[in-house]
Amino acid sequence: MQAYSAESQEILVDVSSEAPHVYHMRLNRPNRRNAITFELWGEMKTVVERLEHEPNCRVIVVSGNGDSFCSGIDLQDGLSNVITTMSNGELDVGRRGIALGRFLQVAQDGFNAIAKCQKPVIAAVHNHCIGVGAELIMACDIRIASQDANFSIKEVDVGLAPDVGALSRMQKIVGNDSWVREMCFTCRNFNAEEALRYGFISRIYPTAKETLDAATQLAKVISEKSPIAVQGTKVNLNYSRDHSDADGQLFVKAWNMGMLQSEDLVESAKAYMAKRKPLFKNV
Length: 283
Description:
By secondary structure, the protein is α/β, with parallel strands linked by helices. 48% of the residues lie in helices and 16% in strands. It has helices spanning 38-52, 80-86, 93-116, 132-138, 166-174, 177-186, 192-197, 208-223, 227-241, 245-259, 263-274, and strands spanning 2-4, 11-19, 22-27, 59-64, 121-125, 128-130, 142-146, 150-152, 190-191, 203-205. Helix 1 (38-52) links the parallel strand 3 and strand 4 (59-64). Keywords: Acetylation, Fatty acid metabolism, Isomerase, Lipid metabolism, Peroxisome.
């Protein structure tokens, strides 16, 4: 499964199966340090939605080909349509605003597809993870990075408020409002050690290869669990994050009224008693 650029047939998102139930999604613009365009956002949404509905896929690993994970938005190629719209004198302010909103929706949908995907998504970060690159990994469930990783929330430096996830997700990930605001207001770089200290990532590895290997191994561990249980856990974690404790418990009760009837519960019990690994069907 590969996503191509409509204009150049360049593979923008390269997808492969790394293990029986683990799929690897690579940003594939290494000559531009995986800078993101609106076309790439659209392809990312398409790929993630396909993987969400692929029964054999249970966990997704996201990485970047080449020297960097993602250097941010492609200011040269990625904003040409936006600039054209903004300078269109034939449109009034309201119509230009609505047209710009459509572009922003494409960008948000690209990352929202990751956040909404019922299957766990693990980000394996190396070197640059800048601007929208950092916002991409905020949509992921687990974030690990190599020692050379460096991050920044860069949008204020280019004259806009972050609009593809940083302002709605970062506070919930980190839990330190003061630090989040410092990063968003100043746009300063922070390294892997600082990211780990504040909970932005969960692990650091010496090299990019070791980071990707660790992400793949972690994905394999998760993929051997009941997909009914894992996907239900993600859905309920996402719901409870945005609702009260009482609402979260009501939601998971209703969820498990159906999911407890799955054969996975019985298979887990049988495997435990027989001291063997459980075997679960695809979903």
